[in-house]
Design a protein that fits this description.
mainly alpha; 1 helix
Length: 45
C-alpha cells in the first residue's frame, strides 16, 4: 500500500495516522457529551 515511500515519509505518515485516530476519538467523545447535554436540556424543558 505504501510502497515507494522513503522511511521518513513512512514515519510521517504513521504520525499523521496516529493524530487522525486521536482526533477521531476526541470528536466521538465530544459528540457523545453533546448528546448527553442536549438530553438534559430536553428533560428540563
Amino acid at each position: 500500500m505504501y510502497t515507494g515511500l522513503l522511511p521518513t515519509e513512512m514515519k510521517r505518515l504513521k504520525q499523521l495516522e496516529d493524530v487522525n485516530a486521536r482526533l477521531k476519538r476526541i470528536v466521538a467523545d465530544l459528540t457523545s457529551h453533546r448528546e448527553i447535554l442536549q438530553d438534559v436540556i430536553r428533560r428540563r424543558l
